[in-house]
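#structure-requests
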Amino acid sequence: MRKELIFDRNSEDLSEYMTRAAEGLRSIKTGIMTSYGLNLGEELPETEQEEFKQYVYALAVAEMERTEGKYCLRRHGFGEDGEDFLSNFKIVILKNLEKFNDSQHLAEDGKKYQFSTFLKHLSLEAVCMTYAQIHGVTRDVEKKFTLVLGTMKKLARERQMDMEQISPEMIHEARPSVSVNDIQAVIDFTRGRESLDKMTEEDRLEGEFLKGQEELDDSGLDTLDLSVERALDTFLGEMRDVEKFFMLVEIGCSEKYQRMTSSQLSCDPFFVHLVLEDDKFAKNVVTGDVVVKRPNRSSAKGVEEMHYENVKHVTENMIRYQRANAKKKWRKLSDVLFPEDICGRSGVEYFMEQWRRLIETNR
């Protein structure tokens, strides 16, 4: 395969390569000239075209299994269905990879996204496909199940009620696009009151149940505005994990780390591991003695110092710089987003999701 078509980690990151590669896949499919001056549909023989496609797909799948796929398996606890989920994820990637950073599929002209954000977006479809298989329903039915049950959970939280107490009428009031009969069908099925076969025969699931599916509005589940989420994805996606750690701690994603003094954080096992895994920051890890004078910033009398001898730790200069830099970056983000764009439960859940993802992928 041509050298210019191979991923070189020393000259570009994965998102940059995948942007080029996806453009190459579109060139093979349509015969158009790429921005880097190659028409792969005409210049490569079919054997090399196939080799290139397999190479790119394999790279994308490997990244998925290392990051988003691994994270979803843990979060959803698919267990013995894990292989099916990964297979579904691979299918979704194969169907959509050529769309990555394609101008025709971008919400904003000229704006490029990180490959990690792309995989996160595709994971939603893979998760839906897997749950549909587990529940023995079609993908569209599963999507409607998710909508009804998500609304039920939202109402239960808002009204401080048990989910069993949420009636179909309450859900319909919050989601007028879904009929009471449809909602009752979902509740009956999930609570084991009716079988899938019986409901299908009565035209309660596959017939009337799917009417208006394309017009279904799912914007009321207290989620971030799509443009806001994309802005945040881009904002955090451009950061290394060490930088992201400080950004998320700064806004309160971890009380544990927020309370730590610089010396205490410097020898925290997870934090030291995180820094060591990053080629850029690993040089800031040294070995020596550490004294923590005020554990957890405590001002109480009688608090004993903590002494660590001959341990790996991160230099405090690096920690102080990153903490100050995190504050500066959050102020910079305020030039793009208003506080009300990310306040409330949906904003909290977004950032806590990013924190959980950071922890899970760096264990």
